[in-house]
Design goal:
The protein has helices at about 15-20, 40-50, 75-85, 90-100, 105-110, 110-120, 125-130, 155-160, 165-170, 235-240, and strands spanning about 1-5, 30, 55, 130-140, 145-155, 180-190, 200-205, 240-245. By secondary structure, it is of the alpha/beta class. It folds into two domains: about 1-65; about 70-245. Strands 7-6-5-4-8 form a five-stranded antiparallel β-sheet. Strands 1-2-3 form a three-stranded parallel β-sheet, with no helix packed on it. Helix 2 links the parallel strand 2 and strand 3 (about 55). Helix 3 packs antiparallel against helix 4.
């Protein structure tokens, strides 16, 4: 009745189709994390067709998804982050990330190949970081039309080498930076083919990592975030839900 494939090295669309056809009484199928990295929208369509008789789990399977009414704002951000990290030079991750950009955002950053060049040239940490922290700081609920997330990535070795010694003194810093922090702005689309879907309107870098210590990749991720500085976002303690992908 239950099948857990999380430790299986190779799970693809063909295997999922075979399982669903030959195990009609299956109640739960889990292809989360690395097991389902190869799964595409073909498997997602099969899963949705089997719902609610089949409970399925596919956390982290970014290739399966594009903008859809069923996805929350947090899931959109997570899939974009996972896609960029899983690109590995193929261009697939960049294309998947771009598919979640709002129409207005696409006009500014597109087409997809131009978007990819921008990411590689200016935001390489998004593709190279081993982990990322995601925290919602505003909106994102069922009744909301906009949402803001903080997303942090590990600093690469080269970054720490540049920001060392006398450079730290000049910039007023005591220690090398341990990560890169960005704000992710999303909105629920109101018309067209994406009506009702959460999509990303823009991403910008935040230089003041010290204002949000709970986003620092060098700090433990567990436990309650600690507020720091008079400029911390108002009401953040009630809104922040920190997750690591």
């Amino acid at each position: 009745r239950e099948l857990d494939l999380r430790r299986v090295a190779c799970v693809d669309d063909q295997l999922v189709a075979w399982i669903l056809e030959n195990r009609p009484r299956l109640a739960l199928l889990d292809v989360s994390e690395s097991a389902g990295e190869r799964l595409t929208a073909r498997s997602l369509a099969l899963f949705r067709a089997m719902t609610p008789s089949l409970e399925w789990r596919a956390a982290g399977c970014w290739r399966m998804h594009s903008a859809h009414l069923s996805l929350s704002a947090r899931e959109v951000v997570a899939f974009q982050v996972l896609a960029l990290r899983g690109d590995e030079g193929s261009g697939d991750g960049v294309a998947a990330c771009f598919s979640f950009a709002s129409p207005a955002n696409r006009m500014y950053t597109g087409p997809a190949d131009r978007f990819g060049r921008m990411i590689r040239a200016s935001y390489g940490c998004m593709m190279q970081s081993r982990t990322a922290r995601i925290a919602c700081v505003a909106g994102g609920g069922d009744a909301d039309t906009t949402s803001t997330f903080l997303v942090s990535f590990e600093a690469q070795t080269a970054d720490a080498d540049v920001l060392s010694g006398s450079w730290l003194e000049v910039m007023g810093m005591e220690e090398p930076q341990t990560g890169h922090l960005f704000h992710w702005e999303l909105s629920r689309q109101r018309d067209g083919e994406y009506d009702g879907c959460w999509m990303t309107d823009g991403v910008g870098q935040i230089e003041q990592m010290h204002m949000f210590p709970f986003m620092d990749p060098a700090r433990p991720a567990d436990g309650e975030p600690v507020q720091s500085g008079e400029n911390a976002l108002p009401g953040w303690r009630e809104q922040v839900v920190l997750s690591v992908v």
